[in-house]
Design brief:
This protein is mainly alpha-helical. About 85% of the residues lie in helices and about 0% in strands. The protein is flat, with a radius of gyration of 10 Å.
């Protein structure tokens, strides 16, 4: 379960590199809320 969380976070971070910083940050914050 924990491994899957890190995996999803990694995907979000990698995809974030190709997007505007603000949009990427929103996605990461949203992801942490979903995990939280």
């Amino acid at each position: 379960m924990l491994k899957q969380k890190y995996f999803l976070t990694g995907i979000f971070i990698l995809s974030a590199e190709r997007q505007p910083i603000k949009l990427a940050w929103r996605k990461i914050v949203w992801l942490h809320k979903m995990i939280g």
